[in-house]
């Protein structure tokens, strides 16, 4: 699993400014519960000086999302809104002593929520709706403008890096070609392929070896789930789709989507290929053509 800094752990276990600011005069909302991440940021700004006096957050997401939100609220207090707007997602991550690459999207979400709240304070329109034809990743609702901005701001060079920072490409993978087109547009050439050594070829495994590797990864993840009285079971492997059952306390849990996303990320890295992890209940729908 991922290695977290002491600062991330501290802000997760003892979050600062959790909850809404009672007399807030600005609100920023980003993300979606259906995608596993959502953040509502409330701030109170002194209208005479434009200084942020208070900030609070309500986050639905993983530990990194909670820690990033907590850190952000600490960072902005005492800042002018103009100064706060200059905060980058990398600065949020740095404040926490760094974030795992796969969790950088949590810092990006924080930066967006802050921009949305300041726009709300100024009476400006801020939204992440997509112009027709600009939507790249349908699974997570990520548009071309956001991907391009994040690529430039963080010097991203691969599809996997973009997935880490925005979640785009982390679902069905049909948008990977579109993401590569954006990389080519930004950097003026086709993006370099990841080093062969970094991605062990899936073709080098027999089906049996592949299934055994999947089971090994699930075995490594199982103790973490069992600590919360949950568990995961491998049900079926159909090409790049892996069906599992979440059992125990994981059944019907509001974090089930985030749990499946974490399992998918670990399996993608272990196998060296993109895979989808779906609940076994989806087997019939996908078999009927609902991919």
**Helix-residue proportion:** 40-55%
> How many extended strands?
8
Overall 3D form: globular
Give the class-level CATH name of the largest domain: Alpha Beta
Mean pLDDT: 83
Q: How much strand content do the residues show? A: 15-25%
Helix/strand/pairing category: alpha+beta
Q: Give me the CATH architecture of the largest domain, please.
A: Alpha-Beta Complex
Annotated CATH topology of the largest domain: Sufe protein. Chain: A
Model regions low in confidence, pLDDT < 50 over at least 5 residues: 129-133, 191-202
Rg, please?
20 Å
Strand order of the largest sheet: 1-2-3
Order of helices and strands: HEEEHHHHEEHHHHEEHEH
Main sheet: strands, sense, barrel: 3 strands, antiparallel
Termini gap? 28 Å
The tally of helices reads 11
């Amino acid at each position: 699993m991922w290695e977290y800094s002491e600062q991330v752990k501290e802000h997760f276990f003892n979050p600062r400014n959790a909850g809404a600011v009672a007399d807030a005069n600005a609100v920023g909302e980003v993300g979606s519960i259906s995608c596993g991440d959502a953040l509502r940021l409330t701030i109170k700004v002194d209208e005479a000086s434009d200084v942020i006096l208070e900030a609070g957050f309500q986050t639905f997401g993983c530990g990194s999302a909670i820690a990033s939100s907590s850190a952000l609220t600490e960072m902005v207090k005492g800042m002018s809104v103009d100064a706060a707007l200059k905060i980058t997602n990398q600065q949020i991550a740095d404040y926490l002593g760094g974030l795992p690459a796969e969790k950088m999207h949590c810092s990006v979400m924080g930066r967006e929520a802050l921009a949305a709240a300041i726009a709300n304070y100024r009476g400006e329109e801020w939204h992440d709706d997509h112009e027709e034809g600009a939507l790249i990743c349908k699974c997570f609702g990520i548009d071309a403008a956001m991907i391009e901005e994040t690529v430039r701001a963080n010097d991203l060079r691969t599809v996997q890096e973009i997935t880490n920072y925005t979640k785009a490409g982390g679902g069905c993978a049909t948008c990977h070609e579109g993401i590569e087109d954006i990389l080519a547009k930004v950097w003026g050439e086709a993006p370099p392929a990841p080093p062969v050594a970094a991605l062990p070829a899936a073709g080098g495994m027999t089906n049996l070896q592949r299934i055994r590797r999947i089971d090994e990864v699930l075995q490594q993840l199982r103790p973490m789930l069992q600590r919360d009285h949950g568990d995961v079971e491998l049900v079926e492997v159909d090409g790049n789709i892996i069906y599992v059952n979440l059992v125990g306390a994981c059944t019907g849990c509001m974090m089930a989507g985030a749990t499946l996303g974490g399992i998918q990320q670990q399996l993608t890295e272990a196998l060296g290929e993109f895979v989808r992890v779906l609940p076994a209940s989806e087997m019939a729908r996908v078999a009927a053509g609902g991919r």
